[in-house]
Design goal:
Order of helices and strands: EEHEHEEHHHHHH
Structural class: alpha+beta
CATH architecture of the largest domain: Up-down Bundle
CATH class of the largest domain: Mainly Alpha
Strand content: 5-15%
Number of strands: 5
Strand order of the largest sheet: 1-3-2-4-5
CATH topology of the largest domain: Glutathione S-transferase Yfyf (Class Pi), Chain A, domain 2
Shape: globular
Largest sheet: 5 strands, mixed
Distance between the termini: 30 Å
Length: about 220
């Protein structure tokens, strides 16, 4: 269990630390931890051991009936699903940061949250899951989906610094982890300079915290 205090007491903050239940190698967990860090919200990180199926315990299933991470407990408000958590935190504590207030801006964010829940899952995430966790995945198909996604993003990011606005939003945080760790799934990011520049801008943001690298795929050596 890791406790992270608030860094800036002047910002909107919960009455007590938010509890984040997650897994160290989960990109979905990393999305939420990135936002907690960047918003300087106090939180306690309870790291579950998925290898021991701790996420399938009766106590955890009462919080998330699907037995998946991440889950947060914000003073009794228990939420699961990383996209829902990102929207909740940005709406409640963001004060306009990370999530636009206008309908068009929110729709722009939602488009990329949908990409993160669909194409990213079937592309770079699937390839990483297959190589890192030895799951039965069609690696060739996952690579093809990832390359198509990265080609689209490469063109888009040639004109835009971020995905949904001219500033960092939860859309970028939702997309970041599995793209940054695509090499763990055997996907080379070298052909995509605009994409790599976008990753670097996120990594330069105050409060950024990296997800642990695994020695697999292109990072095996």
């Amino acid at each position: 269990m890791i406790h992270v205090p608030a860094l800036n007491a002047q910002l909107a903050a919960p009455a007590k630390p938010i509890v984040l239940y997650g897994f160290a190698l989960s990109g979905h967990t990393h999305r939420v931890e990135l936002l907690l860090r960047m918003m300087e919200l106090p939180y306690t990180h309870v790291r579950l051991d998925l290898g021991k199926a701790e996420q399938k315990s009766l106590a955890f299933l009462r919080m998330n009936p699907f037995g998946q991470v991440p889950v947060i407990d914000d003073d009794g408000a228990v939420l699961w699903d990383s996209a829902a958590i990102l929207e909740y935190l940005a709406s409640k504590y963001g004060d306009g940061r990370f999530l636009p207030a206008d309908p068009a801006g929110r729709a722009a964010v939602q488009r990329w949250l949908s990409v993160a829940a669909g194409v990213v899952v079937n592309g770079p995430m699937a390839a990483r899951v297959g190589m890192l966790f030895k799951r039965p995945v069609n690696i060739e198909q996952a690579h093809a989906v990832a390359r198509q996604l990265f080609t689209v993003m490469e063109r888009f990011l040639a004109d835009e610094p971020y995905l949904a606005a001219r500033r960092l939003t939860i859309a970028d945080l939702a997309m970041y982890p599995y793209i940054a760790h695509a090499p763990e799934g055997g996907i080379d990011l070298a052909p995509y300079p605009q994409l790599r520049g976008w990753l670097e801008r996120i990594e330069a943001a105050p409060g950024f915290i990296a997800m642990a690298r695994s020695k697999t795929g292109l990072w095996a050596e």
